Amino acid sequence: MLHDGYRNLVANLGTDRDKAYHGSYVLNLLDAHSLLTIYRSAWLPQAIVDIPALDAVRNWRSWQAKPDQITQLEAEERRLGLREKTRDALKAARLYGGAGILMLDGSSDPTKPLNPERIRKGGLKGLVVVTPMQISPGEIERDPESPFYGRPAYYSLSTGTKAAEQIHPSRLAVFDGVPVPDAATVSTGWGDSVLLAAMDAINHADGFVANVAALAHEAKIDVIHIPRLMEMLASGQEAAITERLMLGMRNKGTNGALVLDGGGTIPGSSEVRGKEEYEQKSASFSGLDALWDRFMMVVSGATKLPIPVSRIFGRSAAGMNATGDGDERVYFDGVKAMQELEVGPAMAALDECLIRSALGARPAEIFYAWRPLRQETEETKAKVFKMVADAARVLAGPNGMILPEEAISEAVANRLIEDGSLPGLEAAMEKYNWLPDDSDGSPGQSPDGSDSAVVTDSAPRTLYVSRKVLNAGEIIRWAKSQGFGKTLNASDLHVTVAFSRTPVDWMECGESWQGRVEVEAGGPRQMERFGEARVLLFASNDLHWRHERFKEAGASWDHPQYQPHITISYDPEAPSIDDIEPYQGPIILGPEIFAEVQEDWAARIEETE
């Protein structure tokens, strides 16, 4: 007989003697109460459920509309608690396999469809997150022409105080955990929990940790060899043996010495007694860390979205040249796909109601975009800001306008307001009547149509920019402990960011990304002497970047390079810098203070003891 296939009878591969021949997969479904118990009692299932849900709403979304419309939409989201309720619904969906957000419009008959077009301003009364613990799906809609085909035709809501109430599916924004094939949907109406496929990996990881913890108690075992032990036990000497062992262990624990019977000839007899022996047996833990790494990788891959090990276990990437950026990028791409392919469609009807409830109408041009998930560094933000500004200049000229200037201005303003590049920009535009949607005049004009609201470049002036030290008291206490008899007043401790005797346009200097700068404890610190001043030098990329921005705007600087520092004292009797241990605590700086250069600044210095 000829077999078309691979069958190795010698090695028993492919036959019923193969160890893998009888292997199969079993679907171990868990009810809602069991899933809740698992979630509440173990941190690893909690992390798998919570992390993607939190990341999906962490930076939320930005509405693309006119500034006043954006303000109203965001206010409506806050009133309804939409962001928090979306997070809770996503967590419940991942845990139970499904959940929903119930839209309340004040209707007395929830069995009727909810028509978003009938929602008026303020018509969305509230949102309620419901889980399979409170709501159960009805029979599945099998009509292919129905918008709810393949989904429950209704849901039954149990309030606990009255009979179950039927809810039309149009009133629910439904989130699935893990979408399942149609046959399973027919029987349950929900998806699967993300824990269902991951439970084996979770149990194996938890079991490994438990076994290692148990092994730690057996890491060192004392072994004592007692000659003729069984004979002594048979003759009823258990108490004597126990007392002997306890005395030996007590002496070993107190004095670090263990006294044993050395054996030898029994006095008055020719019988030779064997000697007691002592040894320690230690368990080996080598290789367990590498094995745990593999368990972590398996758990990471077992989740619906492969969550990086660094996110689940709080561990940084391991290995040479490992940064974890690749894993994080893949994960964030997965979260982005979840936002666009699952969360967005689930909230489509809710968003239609939200827009009408916020604005009283549904402008066709309004839409939203999910904000980026990766946190940009200050350097990256500065580069993006510069690219946006350069692109706007290219579109506006100088070799001919590509797009209308008003359109470019409105688009750039919306971009900068939404991404927070220029805090306070919207309020400033409103203050100067420069909002693009001005109904009483064209952009840049006052309501009477005049050009008085147009903002022009400010007159160049000398520039001195500083930041006050907010924790000055802590630094002065350090200075006193180092032997300083006098120091500057706490209110005078500051860091100079710019000191330009050359006049510059202050508006060209822009605004700092951070109103408050916090320099963490530690890092490079050094005491130096600048003339009569004793100063504390420290490092801050934020201050360096900001100083360079002032120089780009035309500011001058009297020194070869910029070095952030805090002047402690001008006292001639101050200790030698060689004897001072630099301050190592945090440095907290307040917002930037702009002022003109005062050449007599030294005359106003005051010190206190």
In brief:
The protein has 609 residues and is an alpha+beta fold. It is built from 17 helices and 21 strands. The protein folds into 3 domains: 28-207 and 301-358, no CATH class; 378-423, no CATH class; 461-608, Alpha-Beta Complex (Cyclic Phosphodiesterase, Chain: A).
Distance between the termini: 105 Å
- Report the portion of residues in β strands: 15-25%
> What is the count of distinct domains?
3
Number of helices: 17
Number of strands: 21
Principal-axes geometry comes out as flat
Helical fraction: 25-40%
The main β sheet shows up as: 4 strands, antiparallel
Taking all residues together, what is the mean pLDDT? Answer: 82
Q: Structural class of the secondary elements?
A: alpha+beta
> Uncertain runs with pLDDT below 50, 5 residues or more?
1-7, 319-323, 437-456
- The radius of gyration over CA amounts to 36 Å
Describe this structure in words.
- The chain is an alpha+beta fold and 609 residues long.
- The protein folds into 3 domains: 28-207 and 301-358, no CATH class; 378-423, no CATH class; 461-608, Cyclic phosphodiesterase (Cyclic Phosphodiesterase, Chain: A, Alpha-Beta Complex).
- Helices cover 37% and strands 17% of the residues.
- The protein is built from 17 helices and 21 strands.
- The chain has helices at residues 32-41, 43-58, 67-80, 82-96, 182-188, 194-217, 229-234, 238-255, 288-302, 309-312, 325-346, 348-359, 378-396, 405-418, 425-431, 472-481, 541-552; strands at residues 61-64, 98-104, 126-130, 135-137, 155-157, 165-167, 172-176, 220-225, 264-265, 272-273, 277-282, 367-370, 461-469, 487-488, 494-504, 517-519, 525-530, 533-538, 565-569, 587-595, 607-608.
- The strands form 8 sheets. A 4-stranded antiparallel sheet has the order 15-13-20-16, with helices on one face. A 3-stranded antiparallel sheet has the order 3-2-7. A 3-stranded antiparallel sheet has the order 4-5-6, with no helix packed on it.
- A hairpin with a 7-residue loop joins strand 5 and strand 6 (165-167).
- Helix 1 packs across helix 2 (43-58) and helix 2 (43-58) runs antiparallel to helix 4 (82-96).
- It is flat and about 115 Å long.
- The N and C termini lie far apart (105 Å).
- Residues 1-7, 319-323 and 437-456 have low confidence and may be disordered.
